[in-house]
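pasting for the record
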Amino acid sequence: MSYTPSVRLSSHILHEMLIFKRFFDIGVSFLLLALCSWLFVLLAVLIRKDSKGPVFFVQVRVGRDGKLFPMLKFRTMHRGAEGQWQPPSKEKALDYKFQEQDDRRVTRMGRILRRTSLDELPQLWNVLRGDMSLIGPRPEIPQMVALYPDYAHFRHQMRPGITGLAQVMGRGDLTLAESLHWDLEYCQNWTIGLDFKIVWKTIRAVLARRGAY
């Protein structure tokens, strides 16, 4: 699967993104952080009670224009489990799926967090900082980005998001090639209306627990 964008994002779209989209991100992330402060405390207690290790998992991800940043999540795996992961070969990268339905590295509490998507809540801080947006292509680790075909780096024109078009089109059930296809579709055809559609579809996907393992 390949992708060739017909045009770069227009200056008009970039202007709207920088003003309205960023303003929306700041307002909503600040509000949600304030409203969910009690939930952060509750989840922190449950995570520590369930397994040994830190409450938060911090991982370097690739953001807008290829810049690296530390992305926050609630820890869903046993301590040190991320070291057991090996990237696929370049030949098999596009067929790679990111999540396994029976991943023994995931804790009991981690499965609950993943199925409800509550593990992503700390990324509201990344949104407030400007590392991420509420909606956009999901940020990936540098090891996977190094395996991207050249056309796929078009997705780095926009801030990565907590949710995005790929998440509502299949999430963990998608291969890397399928995820990249939807990410690039989003970047090429971004509108404010599309963001609101993704928000609505995200709520439906979370409630249905599709593609979350």
